[in-house]
Amino acid sequence: MEVVIKPGRKEFSKKNQGPRVNDRIRIRECRLLGDDGHQYGVVTIEQARLIAEDRGLDLVEVAPNAKPPVVKIIDYGKFKYEQQKKLNEAKKKQVTVQLKEIQFRPNIDIGDLNTKLKRAERFLSGGDKIKMVMQFRGREMAYKDQGLEKFSGIIGQIVDFGAQVESPMKFMGNRAITILAPDKKAIVKKK
Hints:
This protein has 191 residues and is α/β, with parallel strands linked by helices. It has 5 helices and 8 strands.
């Protein structure tokens, strides 16, 4: 069985990803850079391959879109290792913000409230957002105004810790919901 590839289309595989190396470089002329920083100038690809073979290193196309393309003489294994190391460092510096939920009831006791406030402060200092929910059940719905007033006081206490209200309080069914985010200025001052 014979595989036919249409002219003008490239076959994509994992081998085609990344910079072109050695014999896969298909250009006539290139700007050649040495491993020690020496610039050879514009040379033919055959001359560049001979120089790389003399040094025992690889030719790597570092800027294929330049006119003429830039090719560097380096150890390709070391080059790949350094690229992977840079990617890993970039991943470490990424910040992922999570949304943590804290639930309250209208008749929460002071001890439970203090525990939940400490937890909220810990979440905010860790850079996470907080979804605060005040849930009303049964007869508590009759005293909804008092519960919402208490919830506003709790939100005020958390804002004093160093948070900003991202989504104002909304009442949906039997729940009052608000979202708080850490205040960037307050976090910088603590560090």
